[in-house]
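#onboarding

Welcome to the new folks! Below is a worked example of what a typical request in this channel looks like: someone posts a single protein sequence, and someone else replies with the predicted structure as tokens. Don't worry about understanding the tokens yet, we'll cover that in week two.

Example request:
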Amino acid sequence: EDPSLSMKRPDLEELAALDGDVLFYIVGGTNDSDSDGRFEEVTGNPLWQMLPAVEEGRAYRVDHAHWMEFSGLDAANAVLDDVERYLIGTP
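Example response:
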């Protein structure tokens, strides 16, 4: 398996490489990051705060169930709805 094709949670030091104009992120999922303080640890980190998308107010929390579980057409449509809402600005 090609390791470049797998998904990986970046370490805090690797956050600086996330230099995109827009950032979609999930919280929760198979871990307890929504309740164990990990979310606050990451978003409160100065490296997170320096990301271009965060500085510009273009970092968006999206539903992990739609983005990560790949549970059919409804989930795919929800992902497209998020893309449309956040990238195009359609409510």
